[in-house]
Sequence to fold (202 residues):
Amino acid sequence: MTYYPSLARPSQNPNIPDNDSSAASTSSYAQTIVSPTTSSQEILVQSCQCLAVVVFAVEEFESSCNSGNRIELDGIIAYQKEAINSCRSMGDCSSCMPRRENIMLLILMIEKIVAACGRVVALYRDSSPDWPELLLGDYEINSSMEWEQLIRVLILLQLKALTELLADLKMMGTSVLRERQTTSLVQAEARVSELERDMHAI
Ligand SMILES: [Zn+2]
Fold:
């Protein structure tokens, strides 16, 4: 059996920043974002990189779970966590949130995350007998039952974080959110609840 000490590595993929990384530590690709609502005389320079970080993180999460296998779920969940954390940071950003177009884009990105979470749960449900041996600190995870329970908890934690994010965004209320966006958030919440039920039923 292949030995994958994934959990023993703080960052198995150089593309995944550590959890405490801030938007400022990522590429300057989208340092300057021109708002579609501004004229050429009123070009706004966004002081943060939240949107670029979210777009890249969601793209990486989507591609990891579209091309990944069940045995790679620890890495896929790492991308899932990063995508959700980047949305959380953007939702907490005082530069992003006053701008309606950013809120719309954030909700679109969260819809993509929710869809990809469905794929994560489907991978977990896959009946493949393969699983990787891992080290959790000094603890050796050396049975499929241990690995499955660990992965199950990690997936449920991500779904919980997503539920909390959706609840916080909904609290912005109708003065900020348009009807379409409120509907999207409600639908996303329902889908995440459904995925949580699926995880508990497995
Ligand atoms: Zn921001």
About this structure: The chain has a mean pLDDT of 82. The chain has five helices and two strands. The beta strands are 134-136, 139-141. Residues 39-130+144-201 form one domain.
